[in-house]
Design a protein that fits this description.
By secondary structure, the protein is mainly alpha-helical. It has helices spanning about 10-20, 30-40, and strands spanning about 45-50, 60. α1 packs antiparallel against α2 (about 30-40). The longest helix is centred in the N-terminal third of the chain and has 15 residues, at about 10-20.
């Protein structure tokens, strides 16, 4: 999935932060802060559905996986 940035300036800042994170200069927690500030936040979906004509037995709760902070 392609990331959407709030602006070109925030895109440049985020890409620099990503490089520093990869080198270990920025922590996972700090990188998540850059993600929150620089990326356009996608609306959270309450449920995932298999198709557009699903019934209630097809509806599954969305699962959110977060990285362990340490």
């Amino acid at each position: 999935m392609k990331k959407k940035y709030q602006s070109k300036i925030l895109q440049a800042i985020h890409e620099d932060a990503k490089g520093m994170h990869k080198l270990g200069i920025i922590s996972d927690e700090r990188m998540r802060e850059y993600d929150n500030e620089c990326l356009v936040q996608e609306p959270k979906q309450k449920y995932e559905t298999g198709n557009s004509q699903s019934n209630s037995s097809d509806v599954k709760p969305a699962v959110r996986i977060s990285a362990k902070s340490g």
